[in-house]
Amino acid sequence: MRTETAKEIETSQIPDTGEWVASQNGGHQISLKEYKANGRVPDVRGMSARDAVNLLEEMGVSVHVSGIGKVESQSLAPGYSIGKGARITLFLNR
Length: 94
What we know:
The structure is a single chain. With about 90 residues, the protein is mainly β. Helix content is about 10%, strand content about 35%. It has one helix spanning about 50-60; strands spanning about 10, 20-25, 30-35, 60-65, 70-75, 85-94. Strand 2 (about 20-25) and strand 3 (about 30-35) form a beta hairpin. The N and C termini lie far apart (about 40 Å).
């Protein structure tokens, strides 16, 4: 006989606009955070390389990737004002 258990997981602050969101698992709750550019570098740590590159390139930033896996750190600090010809290096780690 097979027994299945349903887990109830609550979500909070579901963004109703924007294309990019990040999720954080808090046990029985998942929080979603919208990435808003506003001409500033977003915090892409923890994102997959593909998602981070797509997000940054859509903002007009030139991206260089070093390593494999998820973004561990970034050369431009989150919140840094993006100027014309901005470049960023993403450092990845499995």
